[in-house]
Write a structure and sequence with these properties.
The chain is built from five helices and 16 strands. By secondary structure, the protein is mainly β. The protein has one domain. Strands 1, 2, 4, 5, 7, 8, 9 and 12 form an eight-stranded antiparallel β-sheet that branches. Strands 3-16-13-6-11-10 form a six-stranded mixed β-sheet, with no helix packed on it. A hairpin with an 8-residue loop joins strand 8 and strand 9. The longest helix has 11 residues. It is globular.
């Protein structure tokens, strides 16, 4: 698996990020958990209070976000990425470009694989470290890029993601999801957001799942699906390094008439989905120790 880590120390004169107290999985109502990203930290230009996309994009390139991540990124998604990371003094950005063929190691899987000629599912991680080299949090991003004109049938897709809850806990209110679109005839254009959410469909300390409605997007456009969320180490003294690897997995499911359900596993340890006709997997590896 092709991997690249970019380590960079940066000092930015920005306001401190809003800190939400650590806790268990989301337990409040959906309304309680929603928030408006426009109230969060934004990139400002010198003359207006509007979000400065060009400056934020340049910042993302300078701190080491790869082209695969920034490809087509919408204004709303870039604003959130900036909010997630701009106040950090020390970032380590990693990404994985290979997809997992779900049936290879999971013979119980009945859904077919989404071919790489139809979609790419990419994983990215951003480790935040303090001055002592300890990991304070990791921002996880998964992005699904459909190929131009795909998929043929557009209802409601879904993405689930799971992690080791003995090592990491989900930070409340940190999730965000976007369904974006780009013109088939201009696949390199900046995406336009057509659906946005800040509450996963299911969430527990070990996994979460989210529905991605594609029905908003006509066949003249290609969908891009992005999710992001924050994990924090249960060991507050976890050092950065390469001795150990924690894997965060994701499965993207597609069905012509819509995914049936996202649910908590019977053991209560992970999030699962059912009803998909096709799926693709990805893994995000976090190095530490």
């Amino acid at each position: 698996m092709k991997k690249r880590l970019v380590a960079l120390v940066m000092t930015l004169c920005v306001a401190a990020a809003l800190v939400v107290p650590a806790g268990a999985a989301n337990s409040g109502s959906a309304e309680d958990l929603r928030y408006d990203i426009t109230n969060r930290q934004e990139v400002k230009d010198n003359t207006t209070a509007s979000f400065d996309y060009a400056s934020a994009y340049k910042w993302a390139e300078e701190v080491g976000f790869p082209d695969d991540f920034l490809k087509n990124i919408s204004e709303e998604s870039l604003q959130r990425v900036y909010y997630d990371n701009a106040s950090a003094d020390n970032l380590v950005i990693g990404y994985d470009t290979d997809n997992i063929l779900m049936g290879d190691n999971q013979p119980s899987v009945r859904a077919g694989n989404i071919g790489s000629n139809n979609m790419e599912l990419r994983s990215f991680s951003v480790k935040h470290k303090n001055a002592n080299g300890k990991i304070t949090k990791v921002i996880i991003y998964f992005t699904a890029y459909w190929k131009p004109g795909k998929p043929a049938y557009r209802a409601t897709d879904a993405i689930i993601t799971n992690w080791d809850s003995t090592q990491w806990y989900f930070q409340d209110h940190s999730f965000w999801g976007r369904v974006e679109k780009v013109p088939n005839t201009s696949p390199d254009n900046t995406a336009t957001t057509v659906y946005s959410d800040s509450v996963p469909a299911k969430c527990l300390q070990g996994g979460l799942g989210w529905y991605a409605p594609l029905s908003y997007i006509t066949q003249a456009y290609t969908p891009v699906i992005r999710i992001g969320y924050e994990l924090r180490p249960r060991n507050s003294n976890m050092p950065d390094g390469t001795t150990y690897t924690s894997s965060v997995t994701a499965t993207y499911g597609h069905k012509s008439i819509g995914i049936q359900s996202i649910s908590i596993s019977g053991s209560g340890a992970s999030v699962t989905m059912s009803g998909q006709d096709y799926e693709m997997g990805a893994v995000c590896n976090i190095k530490h120790g």
